[in-house]
Write a structure and sequence with these properties.
Blueprint: H1 8-32, E1 37-42, E2 48-53
Antiparallel strand pairs: 1-2
Length: 59
């Protein structure tokens, strides 16, 4: 079962690690599958983290 981390320091550390892994997976998915992808994450303090990819337009 997943539960909230009560200790604020541990919660922030976990958030940072998980956010980094999520951004990496988003980047990998965009590259491997040639997908247009957008990811928006807000921290508990309201800080915005984002990732966006797009394929070049080929005429």
């Amino acid at each position: 079962m997943i539960e909230r981390i009560d200790n604020a320091t541990n919660r922030q550390l976990t958030f940072s690690k998980q956010r980094g892994g999520l951004m990496k997976k988003a980047w990998e998915l965009a590259i491997l599958c040639e997908a247009d992808l957008a990811l928006i994450v807000f921290s508990s303090t309201g800080r915005l983290y984002d990732f966006a990819s797009s394929r070049p337009v080929v005429n």
